[in-house]
Design brief:
By secondary structure, this protein is α+β, with helices and mostly antiparallel strands. The strands form 9 sheets. The chain has a 7-stranded mixed sheet with strand order 3-8-1-16-13-14-15, sandwiched between helices. Strands 11-19-18-17-12 form a 5-stranded mixed sheet, sandwiched between helices. A 5-stranded mixed sheet has the order 20-21-29-30-33, sandwiched between helices. The protein starts with 14 loop residues before the first helix and ends with a helix.
Length: 740
């Protein structure tokens, strides 16, 4: 289909407001009489709360409220598993858990009041390793687990809170029929999303009891529902107002801070605001789950994969409240993108006494793809096969089923392998060379990524001057959603995108389930397309009424109503002048079934390793993905580049390390996000695929780019040095120690 606006490079709709500083973020919002909030946090990873004395804090001038677990509802909260108290009740389960809340006239008074709260703790045995937490003699962290409400719960498995399993064929017979069997164990670290804006919340309760909320969050309607359920408030009495969000990457979910700030606002009858420090963010955020991944694979003599058994152990931390759906879909990718007839995959999320983990771009997948693609190279080396050829021999094709049994068509794994081989000149690739104590190597990785689902609505109307206003409650967390919305609406209506103005609504606007699972273009885009299509029909109706003809004699094309077999046309402004305003409004809604569509992608990495120090320099990356209609090439490639940079951080520098459960990083300066000097040249290419589920056949790309960088670099390091690093991140220290 030929398009005029879709496929055009356009600047971001919200770009000017962000670069000029006029965007309003949650931390910028102030209401008359606003108080400040702060939270006292546990210094113990596991302890019984014996006694809390807040009397000294209550007497401090400027303090308006001090709350403990006794003053708030004992109901548990969570995104899908309700297992976390908003303030600790009888025990704490990680360092940083909230024990008391203070509202005061200013932030300095809040800090003084927190220091005056006396808490007596009785330390309890703690466990930090997920494998140790599964032992029979490990401390049971949630004795009341059976009573918790939520999804995907296990039964009778101790500290294992979630268990998923998928299989096809007969894996035991597959191993018996295999000629070679390979086993490996890989570990990945806990990492933070690294968004610039820490969490911020403001809650105001008006004289009628109506609750207003301003918060940086991915799901405004989720906030409303979670607070309503927890505090027994009708949803219609809660309004979540729109604010800009300074990045998320999956990490701004849940309602714990909103609920606590609401309790403080209710107790003081004043607006209350909480802005987190970055030390608090790192200590009590929602980092990517650390993991242990155990792989066992059977291979035929000719290099065909024949049996694959995989077990993933995700370190879930002290609570599951921050993990949507209480499971990790990355488990279902732990046998890779390969045609293996006999597969068994298991995934567990395990309670430990560490900060509760949550979602981060491609959740669960980044961990498993590091293991799978490292394992593939290990097998290729042992079998004497080129890593590219080994993947080509086993890659899924049209008509195959994925390891979880899902049927596939329009599969482009072989295409992306062929294209990345050509782009990187793989056949002429860098041999293992040494010069000045530096060795060089090249690695490859292959994978696919599912496209998410959800629910969204949009509303579009014609203004009296003939311009268009598109209302959406979607929070653009940096993905370019509003620009995509404008381009889709403009394409459908045949107008320039500048004619479409975005009206970012709160929960009094069209419903949106929230930003997640690279579902934006698919779900939100279709909602906008349907709204614009419905509006074009309304416009034709008004034109037909004006011309006094049957509706079927009018069509909408090129931004005008056109009378068939005539030169008569009406533009938007004219139709707005002759029509009742309420007749020029339309809505679109989308709640699709899961599409059997995937992204297919491959990465090649060239690295140089200093043999004396183990220092790794990534010299070049090559990235290939399949795509259909690209709505905005600038944003499309921005997603890829952003994902690749996050993959670099995960690979080489980022580690939210802990000591006995305490997060040791105090700032992003300690945490070691990659900077501009760490980013290598990146060459990208696109393979044409046939169909996608989004508007104009578009595919998703929001969570692409990140997952294959680590295994490609690990494989390149192994090719250069002969050293296989199986524990992330891939640091110089690990390479240096392995050489000793």
């Amino acid at each position: 289909m030929k398009t005029s606006v879709i496929g055009r490079v356009l600047g971001r709709v919200e770009g000017e407001s962000k670069v000029t500083g006029s965007s309003a973020y949650a931390a910028d919002i102030m209401r008359p009489g606003t108080l400040w909030a702060g939270f006292l946090r546990s210094p113990y990873p596991h302890a019984r709360v014996v006694k809390i004395d807040v009397s000294r804090a209550q007497k401090l001038g400027g303090v308006k409220a001090v709350l403990t677990g006794k003053e708030v509802s004992p109901r548990l909260e969570g995104v899908s598993l309700l297992d976390k108290p908003v303030l600790a009740q009888d025990r704490v389960r990680y360092i940083g858990e909230k024990v008391a809340a203070v509202a005061a006239a200013d932030r300095d008074t809040v800090e003084q009041a927190l220091d005056l709260i006396d808490v007596e703790y009785e330390p309890l045995p703690a466990v930090f390793d997920p494998l140790e937490a599964m032992r029979a003699d490990a401390p049971l962290l949630h004795p009341e687990f059976a009573s918790y409400e939520g999804e995907n719960k296990t039964r009778g498995l101790g500290n294992v809170r979630s268990f998923v399993h998928s299989a096809k064929g007969d894996v035991e017979r597959g191993f018996l029929e295999s000629d070679e069997i390979f086993e490996n164990t890989f570990c990945t670290q806990m990492v933070h999303q690294g968004f610039i804006e820490p969490r911020a919340t403001l809650v105001e309760i008006d004289a009628r009891g109506r609750v207003g909320i301003w918060q940086c969050h991915q799901s405004p309607f989720g906030i409303r529902k979670w607070l309503a359920d927890h505090a027994d408030i009708p949803e219609e009495m809660i309004v979540v107002h729109p604010v800009s969000t300074g990045g998320s990457f999956g990490g701004k979910q849940g309602a714990e801070d909103i609920i606590l700030t609401y309790y403080l606002a209710r107790a003081t009858q004043r607006p209350v605001k909480f802005v987190e420090s970055y030390q608090e963010e790192l200590q009590d955020g929602q980092p990517r789950h650390a993991s242990v991944i155990v792989l066992r694979t059977g291979v035929k003599r000719d290099g065909r994969l024949w049996a694959w058994d995989a077990k993933v152990y995700y370190n879930g931390g002290a609570y599951g409240a921050r993990t949507p759906r209480n499971r990790m879909n990355g488990t279902f990718m732990v046998a890779g993108s390969y045609r293996t007839p006999n597969v068994s995959m298991e995934g567990r999320i395990i309670y430990t006494n560490q900060v509760p983990s949550g979602y981060f771009r491609a959740p669960g997948e980044v961990q498993t793809m590091f293991a799978v693609e490292s394992h593939m190279d290990e097998m290729a080396c042992a079998l004497g096969l080129d890593p590219l050829e080994f993947r080509q021999r086993n890659a899924l094709r049209d008509g195959d089923t994925k390891p979880d049994g899902e049927a596939l068509d329009d599969v482009h794994l072989l295409d992306v392998l062929q294209r990345v081989a050509a782009l990187s000149k793989w056949r002429k690739g860098k041999p293992r060379t040494s010069a000045n104590g530096v060795v060089r190597g090249r690695g490859i990785a292959l994978g696919d990524r599912h496209i998410g689902i959800g629910e969204s609505a949009a509303e579009i109307l014609v203004e009296p001057d003939g311009s268009l206003r598109l209302a959406t409650a979607v929070r653009d967390v940096g993905v370019g959603a509003y620009t995509m919305h404008c381009q889709v609406a403009a394409e459908v209506l045949g107008v320039e995108p500048e004619l479409v103005q975005i009206d970012v609504a709160g929960t009094d606007g069209p419903y949106d389930q929230g930003v997640r699972a690279q579902r934006g273009t698919h779900v939100e885009g279709l909602a906008v397309l349907r709204a614009a299509t419905a509006l074009s029909e309304r416009l034709c109706e008004q034109a037909a009424r004006h011309w006094n003809v049957e509706m079927n004699r009018v069509r909408w094309h090129g931004g005008r109503a056109r009378l068939k077999a005539s030169k008569k046309t009406l533009d938007l402004k004219t139709i707005a002048e002759i029509s009742p305003q309420e007749s020029l409004r339309a809505q679109g809604h989308c709640k699709p079934e899961k599409p059997h569509t995937h992204n297919y992608q491959s990465v090649v990495a060239d690295v140089a390793v200093d043999q004396a120090t183990g220092h790794v320099k990534v010299e070049k990356l090559f990235y290939v993905i399949d795509a259909t209609k690209i709505i905005n090439p600038l944003i499309f490639h921005g997603h890829i580049h952003g994902g690749v940079v996050q993959g670099l951080g995960f690979s080489l520098t980022e580690h939210l390390s802990t000591e006995d459960g305490r997060v040791t990083a105090l700032s992003l300066g300690d945490y070691k996000l990659p900077n501009i000097g760490d980013i290598p040249p990146l060459s990208t290419a696109i393979v044409k695929s046939n169909h996608g589920p989004g508007p104009f056949g578009a595919k998703a790309v929001g969570e692409a780019g990140i997952s294959l960088v680590a295994p490609a670099i690990a494989n390149a390091i192994a090719a250069a040095t002969g050293i296989r690093i199986k524990e992330m991140p891939l640091t110089a220290e690990k390479i240096f120690r392995a050489r000793q």
